[in-house]
Amino acid sequence: MKEVILKHPMIEHKISILRNEKTSTKEFRELISEIASILCLEALKDAKLEEITVKTPITLTKGYRINEDNYAFVPILRAGMGMVDGVLRLMPTAKIGHIGLYRNEKTLEPVEYYCKLPNNIEEKTVILLDPMLATGGSAVNAISKLKDRGVKKIKFLSIISAPAGIKKIQETYPDVEIYTAYLDKELNEFGYIVPGLGDAGDRIYGTK
Ligand code: PRP
Ligand code: URA
Q1: Rounded CA separation 60/38 (Å)
Q2: How far apart are CA 39 and CA 22, in angstroms?
């Protein structure tokens, strides 16, 4: 499957606010969460519907439900946490796992520090969350952890991606679906996405 890139005037508008270095922490968080909802909606287009009967005030009619127990959200800490609110708005009862990784500033290699995943995760579709897909090292590391636990269906959601990160996931794990709001041009010498939005974790948590 090719990656899915959201193309919409509202996304252009919202990403431009995210990029602006003057955008406040509050607005930055709200926009990350909002775009995460939109990405999740797109990623759930293939969700399986179960038929149910609904009693309206007028009559009985055919309706549908999605079994949220078939899904788990897994943010990559820290920045991925910023997307959790947004995806939970769509699926409030889905289980949540956490994978803690940070990039070594010199080697750009991911360093692991935490992993806690829901029981029976191997039976669920996992929606992996990280606003930034740069070299792809963190995403591939997180995907390998999920695969080790037996997860068969993974959808990776990012706000901004670089071509190198998309290529790395697709070459390593071609079965993983990638949904991104925006494809940027390249990485700079420090591994930051250009034009990007800077360090997503720092901007979400106001740590710089
Ligand atoms: C950022 C981002 C990704 C990673 C992307 O996390 O949230 O996890 O970098 O880069 P990569 O594709 O080259 O691996 P960071 O390491 O800054 O940690 P943080 O979320 O704790 O700030
Ligand atoms: N991580 C970030 O937070 N921003 C980038 O541009 C690259 C990696």
Answers
A1: 31
A2: 25
pLDDT number for residue 37: 98
Distance 55 CA to ligand 2 centre (A): 49
pLDDT means per 10 residues, the chain with 208 residues, are: 92 98 98 98 97 98 98 98 98 98 94 97 98 98 98 98 98 98 97 98 95
**Domain CATH number, residue 95:** 3.40.50.2020
Would you say the C-alpha torsion 49, 151, 193, 161 has a positive or negative sign?
negative
State the distance from the centre of ligand 2 to the C-alpha of 192, rounded, in angstroms: 5
The pick from 76, 101, 192, 203 for probing ligand 2's pocket by mutation, whose C-beta has the most ligand atoms within 8 angstroms, reads: 192
Number of domains in the chain: 1
Ligand 1, atom 7, lies closest to the CA of: 79
- Structural domain containing residue 149: 3-205
Whether this prediction's pTM lies above 0.85 is answered by yes
Q: What share of the chain is helix, strand, coil (3-state, %, to 5)?
A: 40, 30, 30
- pLDDT tens column, 55-80: 999 999 999 999 999 999 999 999 99
Q: Is the dihedral of CA 93, 99, 105, 109 positive or negative?
A: negative
Whether the Cβ atoms of residue 87 and residue 78 lie closer than 8 Å to each other = no
Tell how far the Cα of 77 is from the centroid of ligand 1, in angstroms.
Answer: 8
